[in-house]
Design the sequence.
């Protein structure tokens, strides 16, 4: 069997692009980009520039610089999303730790008791597993972080509002799912949304947070979870197909809808301005495809910025 996945040097990588119809005028620039950024990652942004799903050749006139500009856009866009997801992550940890500490105590021997969580039989195993995970974090990270080390050394315990610093967003998401109903409602009331909706949002946020942290392709990402229809879909008059909204269900606009409900007006306004800035910059560098093609991949309707002003 022929091995088509052998190592290829920079010149060979450029020739593969050219074979598929990509214009590479400045070979020195292309070599430098491919060396520093990786052929595999740059190639991951090719699909918008292909003639069709069946015809895997580039649209005539597409340049290496144009494809690279999409790569750079996604990096900038990912950094923006990541920055605001970290704000939401911190807020979520703070609100949850405040609610549980206020009600159940500030020592892990108090707040990590199984009776403090959902006591239904179908949650029993999940509750015990998560308590074990959190206790493991106390053991593993207790001496590695200055805040947790300080409390262990001086007080012999780690308050939940300190422990959350070393807990992943994924664990926090799971923690919320095993809380008692009244605790879940008290937490999501801060945002004015119902508990079921908030429960659906948290794993989506955690997934995107990890995607951004690992620098995966973001702009065309789709999640397995689908969010419910919202007032934003209706007010923005998003188009429907077969009675389903075509944008804002499991795409980046769905994420924007979630973020809109969890950030302040100033934060979502600034976020939208930053996104528009990188979109404008990308549009200046696109020659063979329109910016609307990128927006469509993102799941952004053309009037996406109007979401900022919806109450």
Sequence:
């Amino acid at each position: 069997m022929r091995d088509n996945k052998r190592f290829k040097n920079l010149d060979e990588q450029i020739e593969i692009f050219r074979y598929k119809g990509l214009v590479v005028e400045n070979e020195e620039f292309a070599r430098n980009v491919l060396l520093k950024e990786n052929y595999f990652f740059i190639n991951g942004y090719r699909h918008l520039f292909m003639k069709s799903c069946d015809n895997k050749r580039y649209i005539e006139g597409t340049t290496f610089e144009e494809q690279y500009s999409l790569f750079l856009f996604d990096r900038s866009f990912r950094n923006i999303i990541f920055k605001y997801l970290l704000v939401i992550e911190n807020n979520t940890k703070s609100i949850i730790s405040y609610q549980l500490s206020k009600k159940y105590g500030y020592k892990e021997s108090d707040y990590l008791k199984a009776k403090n969580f959902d006591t239904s039989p179908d949650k029993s195993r999940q509750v015990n597993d998560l308590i074990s995970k959190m206790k493991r974090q106390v053991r593993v990270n207790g001496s590695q972080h200055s805040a947790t080390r300080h409390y262990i050394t001086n007080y012999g315990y780690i308050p939940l509002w300190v422990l959350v610093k070393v807990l992943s967003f994924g664990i926090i998401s799971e923690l919320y799912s095993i809380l008692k109903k009244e605790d879940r409602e008290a937490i999501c009331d801060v945002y004015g949304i119902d508990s079921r909706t908030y429960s659906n949002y948290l794993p989506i946020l955690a997934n995107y947070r990890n995607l951004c942290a690992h620098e995966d392709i973001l702009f065309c990402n789709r999640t397995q979870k689908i969010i419910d229809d919202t007032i934003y879909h209706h007010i923005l008059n998003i188009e429907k197909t077969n009675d389903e909204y075509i944008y804002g269900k499991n795409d980046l606009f769905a994420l924007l809808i979630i973020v809109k409900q969890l950030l302040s007006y100033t934060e979502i306004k600034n976020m939208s301005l930053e996104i528009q800035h990188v979109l404008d910059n990308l549009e200046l560098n696109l020659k063979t495809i329109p910016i609307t093609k990128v927006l469509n991949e993102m799941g952004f309707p053309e009037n996406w910025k109007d979401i900022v002003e919806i109450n």
About this structure: The longest strand covers residues 240-241.
